[in-house]
Design a protein that fits this description.
By secondary structure, the chain is of the alpha/beta class. The chain has 14 helices and 12 strands. Helix 1 links the parallel strand 1 and strand 2. Helix 1 packs parallel to helix 3. It is globular, with a radius of gyration of 19 Å.
Length: 323
Amino acid sequence: MDTNRTNIVVLGGGTGQGNLLRGLKKHTESLSAIVTVADDGGGSGLIRAENRMLPPGDIRNCLVSLSNMDPIMEKLMSHRFESGSLKNQSFGNLFLLALYEIFGDFEKAVDHISDMIGVKGSVIPSTNEQVRLVATLDNGNVAIGESNIAPSCITQKTFIKKLELIPSKPSASCKAVERIADADIIVIGPGSLYTSIIANLIIPDISEAIINSRAKKVFICNIMSEEGETDRLDCYGHLEKITDHVKNLKIDYMLINNKIIESDILERYDREHKHPVYVDDSQRAKIRELGVQIIEDNLLRVSETGQIMHDSEKVARILLDIL
């Protein structure tokens, strides 16, 4: 297969999705990022509340990851103001807001900025509707809003039982559904399990398109747990939560990091209540019972600042090898 013609669709949000896109863009001309728009916190949430625009943060992050900008422009797109009324707001978010006000359409704003900064591939919101996440917790309480879910779990010392949307059945972006239908491989993750990954999958049109697609479906398991979302979940637990929320979804492959993380790095993450997500023989057996082929490898990369992330170049090669 000509990898330049390989249609790859990546679903998610946050830094995990952006990091993976940086590796994949070197290998294919046909790459689509389908991004959650349920964020309601930080600068994105403020723009969303004040301007009735879809939250731009995760979209901006993917645009930057897929662009061919010079380093100064990339820094500009990611720059956050340090003082005044714009403190903590991103220039890239404001850029998207300005284009949205000019054209009156969020997808058109994304398309125009993609042309302006040389994006390789497409960045597509999973829905063009204003959606909010609703989490039913194990203790019976309900947390409404993406930014409230993890803090509610932490303060109440409980876990997420079920994730839903308001409205419950938003329409998916037509472009997102088309790209899924045309995909050769659909990549789910990495990223926050509930608020980035499942938030996309519980949009009915998105899940139906994935289920009906003949593409290979690959789930990339997170390397570290996330406080308030996946504290108690192992590798199998991550997969189980996805299949619990999306019935009839058949995952073909699951990528799992098997590199042991150095103790000094783990100590720092432990202070943030984040822990490695490893797999053992009992988990492997349960994963295979679901018909999922496991690919284990050293997928770990540690940034200059000590941040743990996936080695996007290595993951990209594995994904293309699957085809």
